[in-house]
From TrEMBL:
It comes from Streptomyces badius. It holds the Pfam family FMN_red. Residues 21-163 form the NADPH-dependent FMN reductase-like domain. This is FMN reductase. InterPro entries: Flavoprotein-like_sf, FMN_Rdtase-like_dom, NAD(P)H-dep_reductase.
Amino acid sequence: MDTTAASTQPTASTRPTAPLRVAVILGSNRDGRFGPVIADWFLARAAAHPGIETDLIDVAEADLPTRITFSPGPEEAGRLAAVSERLAAADAFVVLTPEYNHSFPAPLKTLIDWHSAEWQAKPVAFVSYGGISGGLRAVEQLRQVFAELHTVTVRDTVSFHNAGALFDDEGRHRDPGPADAAAKVLLDQVVWWGSALRDARNARPYGA
């Protein structure tokens, strides 16, 4: 037996791992929204984290129809397909949400409700922003929604309380240390869950 040849074969622990594909969903389309500031901040932290590729899905750009139907028109079907393909390709999700009236925005719920299998057996993490609550009430409601869609929601979040006062006019966080540390914890958990669930889906299709 040629043990030399056998010893040079890659093993599961030495094979290169494909980057985790993370869809970052910007959940507000309101005029004057603060979401793009949060998105730029988060994407910069994700870019510095090893093993992640991000895809920003902005509900304002997606412009999905609010009437959910099994037979959308050609234009609506095209917009929907463009988003559906990106969600299906993702290994994990990070939802960026404000809090409006103690809840999350309607366009975000529309994007969620148009899809089913695209979410299943994948992790979802949350970055929230708002006034005194920092968007945390919106996150707690989203956890219930995503549980129904067979996801795993990541325990740790990043939240910005009184968000407008935390960033300067250039979109830089005035005291970045704690927020950067929270983002690292969140991203570490996304990578762990995303990698574990991707391996599980590859080994056995998920049965919802």
